[in-house]
Structure formats: structure tokens, C-alpha cells
Amino acid sequence: MNKEVLSLLVDNHSGVLTRVASLFGRRGFNIDSLTVSATDNPAISRITIVVQGDEQIIEQIVKQTDKLEETREIFALDPNRSLFRELLLVKVAADETNRSAIREVATIYKAKIIDLCMESMVMELTGEPDKIDSFLDMMKGYQILEMCRTGITALERGEAHHSFN
Amino acid sequence: MNKEVLSLLVDNHSGVLTRVASLFGRRGFNIDSLTVSATDNPAISRITIVVQGDEQIIEQIVKQTDKLEETREIFALDPNRSLFRELLLVKVAADETNRSAIREVATIYKAKIIDLCMESMVMELTGEPDKIDSFLDMMKGYQILEMCRTGITALERGEAHHSFN
């Protein structure tokens, strides 16, 4: 199984996400994460998709996605030349007995405590996906009440860039 | 126009994103941002959607989404009781003449410089969407080469939580 991070620049039309999601969903392989949001050009949205699957099938879907009217550009990000980041919000059960211990883990990972009440706290952590995973492994030693990850967002290192201005 | 942040807990099946996106896309109103990723339960994915539109239409779509077989829960996040965060990666043209000035802005916003070359730098910033917007406004004074936002991810403050463990 191959894991690919794909970046799409598409026209910011209603319905474009449906068409992209259906191309990927149809093949029955799942999307690990997907983010879509604005770019510096209001007419263009950026979709970042992480997929796992057979290399050839991914290649086919990339070609099909490239043919969509709304697709301006689609490219795979080379892990060796890219910056991958993800944001996590996690709510953990915490009271007087274990608050310090949890806070110590947060400090080591440079996670920020952004909400605190008598029985729980919410932490925010930004980093490479592996770092997020390993922080979550530590938090599993406590009780995770709820969590929310953004999915991966990515840019290439260096001066190379893709944009439509 | 009303802006709503909706949180969905759905079965982690191939195709669920297509169905959700098509419910929202069909009405012709656009999705401002969407993130989908794993939760602490591998069988469940979490989708966070930011939509703008008529309050009644949003309410209708929420009801329709709730009826989907894969939907475990859908709820709107109250802005007064929620934590909204977003992650930005932005590549800006920067050389010896303006590197210090850009770095100073980054320091004020607590943005991290995560890549640097002779002609550009990449910064990472996590915060409330308004903070991201205002940082980008500052960066427009320089030359934005490329950017990538994750879209909003959100949790409620306090102990209340939604999860399926």
C-alpha cells in the first residue's frame, strides 16, 4: 500500500468537492484525510488529500481528477521535499490528581493548554503527523474525551510554488 | 447570511464524504472550509464544515445529513462556547532586504519559520481564524507565493463532549 499526499488547485465552485470526493470514493479506497479551504486567490480553492492505495490506481484517479473542468492543477507532494503539518485539538479528562502530569507531557510536546475546567482540559498541538500520533499515544494513558484533527496540509520546501495570480 | 460551524461524526466508510458533500453542494451554497480526519475511534471519522447561507436552508441540510445512514451525530458549534482553530502554511518571497521585517511580523504573531531559502521562507501559524486572516493581511504587504490553510477545526469548551467509544 502506497500513501500519497495530493494537492489540488480547483475553481471555487459549489459542487467541485462532490465531484472530487466521488472520484476518490468510487474506487472504494478510503481517504485518510482531506482539507479544503481558500487560497490567496478567492476564485481558487485548495484541496489536500491523503490517500492509501495501489500506486497504479492512485495514478489513474489523479489523471481523472486532472480532467475535471474545475481542476487547475493536481500534483503529488514528494515527502522528501515537502512540509507536512497537522493541527490537533484534544479534550482529556484531568483533575487535581493528574493535571500536573498531563501538563508536563504537554510542555515536552509544546502543546498549548487552551481550555481548562475542574474535570478536563483542551490542548492544541501543531506538528508533523507523526508527532501528533505520538502525542496522542501518550494521551491515551489518560482519558481522551474528544478530539479533532484537521488532516494534513502541505507545501513544498524551497522556492518552487503553485499558484494562479 | 449566517455562518455556521457544523461538526459531524460519521462512519468511516468509503463514499460517506461524497454523500455529505453532495447534500451541501446541491443547494448551490458553497462550503467555506471542510476538514475530515480520524477520531480516537478508528470506525468513526469527524467532519468539520463551515458554511454560509440562509439559516432555514442550513437547518434543512442539517436534518437531511442527520438522516444519512452513516451519520452518528451532527451539531452546530455555538461560537460563544467553542474553540475554533486553524492552521496556515504560507510561502512568502523574502531576501536579505526584507527578511528581518518579515521575521518581526512572524514573531509578533508567534508564527514559526519552518523553511528558509535565499529567495523565500515558509511560515506556520495556528490560531483563531481571525488571527490567521489578519496575519495574511500583513503578509500581503510582501509577496505571497503560495499558501495552504487547513480550514477550521473545533471543539466545545468545558467538559461536554461527543464521542463513540
- Estimate the strand proportion of chain A: 35-45%
Architecture per CATH nomenclature, i.e. the level-2 architecture of the largest domain in chain A: 2-Layer Sandwich
CA-atom Rg of chain A in angstroms: 19 Å
For the largest beta-sheet of chain A, the strand count, sense and barrel status come to: 5 strands, antiparallel
**What is the residue-mean pLDDT of chain A, rounded to a whole number?**
90
Which protein chains make the most extensive interface, counting residues with beta carbons within 8 Å of the other chain's beta carbons?
A: A-B, 61 and 62 residues
What is this structure, in a nutshell?
The structure is a homodimer of 165-residue chains. Chain A has 165 residues and is α+β, with helices and mostly antiparallel strands.
Present the secondary structure layout:
Two copies of one chain form a homodimer.
Chain A lengths: L1 E10 L4 H11 L4 E8 L5 E10 L1 H13 L3 E6 L5 E12 L5 H11 L2 E5 L3 E8 L1 H11 L3 E7 L3 E4 L9
Antiparallel strand pairs in A: 1-3, 1-4, 2-3, 5-7, 5-8, 5-9, 6-7
Helix pairs in contact in A: 3-4
Task: Explain what this protein looks like in three dimensions.
Two copies of one chain form a homodimer. The first copy, chain A, is built from four helices and nine strands. In chain A, strands 5, 6, 7, 8 and 9 form a five-stranded antiparallel sheet that branches. Chain A has a four-stranded antiparallel sheet with strand order 2-3-1-4, with helices on one face. Helices cover 28% and strands 42% of the residues of chain A. The first copy, chain A, is of the alpha+beta class. In chain A, helix 3 runs antiparallel to helix 4. Chain A is elongated, with a radius of gyration of 19 Å. In chain A, strand 2 (31-38) and strand 3 form a beta hairpin. Chain A has two domains: 2-76, ACT domain (Alpha-Beta Plaits, 2-Layer Sandwich), CATH 3.30.70; 83-153, Alpha-Beta Plaits (2-Layer Sandwich). The longest helix of chain A has 13 residues, at 55-67. At the A-B interface, helix 1, strand 2, strand 5, strand 7 and strand 8 of A face helix 1, strand 2, strand 5, strand 7 and strand 8 of B. Strand 2 (31-38) of chain A pairs antiparallel with strand 2 (31-38) of chain B, so a sheet runs across the interface.
